[in-house]
Design goal:
alpha+beta, 2 helices, 42% helix
Length: 181
């Protein structure tokens, strides 16, 4: 937030940070409720089995709210993360660079690998700016060595040449509607 240039941007960052904090609290509440529901559910199942009670709809009321709170957190967290990143880079400089290297990271739980794109941009002062763009694992056809040399647009708050993680992907300059067809 210290790199924000305008009061409006600082306000947006503060607001989305607060929403992120609320999201974390919702996660905590949902996790505690779900973990607490497990022994209660086991006890109820045992008691129902011994007593011969055939009312298993009680488990929907036991686990349903906890799962609902966790789903609420997942949706809020997914919405908040991108908005907070946009707010943090709202006043940032937009720079064109070139992908120098594609680094394949270990695969996630779904078997899709994630990637880091090592990017280099020449600043007008003649200095080289290096950044590392994280490329998520959702795209199974992800980047490969053909991406090396490809132009990339990104935002950064600092002109420090070695602040590698001060970066937000801002698109491909060569991505036009004609090339998407």
């Amino acid at each position: 937030m210290s790199r924000a240039k305008t009061p409006e941007t600082r306000t947006r960052i503060r607001r989305w940070s607060q929403v992120e904090t609320v999201s974390g609290l919702i996660l905590l509440i949902g996790t505690v409720a779900f973990v607490a529901a497990i022994p209660v559910g086991i006890g109820l199942a045992l008691w129902f089995w011994i007593a011969g009670v055939d009312r298993f709809d009680v488990f929907a009321w036991l686990y349903g709210p906890a799962v609902g709170v966790l789903l609420l957190w997942a949706g809020l967290d997914a919405y908040t993360k991108s908005r907070l990143a946009e707010a943090r880079f709202a006043d940032a400089q937009r720079t064109m660079g070139v992908v120098e290297e594609v680094v394949e990271l270990p695969a996630d739980g779904d078997g899709n690998p994630a990637y880091d794109l090592a990017v280099r941009a020449e600043l007008p002062e003649g200095r080289a700016l290096r950044r590392t763009v994280n490329w998520g694992s959702g795209d199974s056809s992800g980047p490969d060595d053909r991406w090396v040399g490809r132009a990339i647009r990104f935002r950064h708050n600092s002109s420090d040449p070695d602040d590698e993680h001060d970066v937000l992907f801002d698109g491909w300059p060569d991505d036009t509607k004609e090339s998407r067809r």
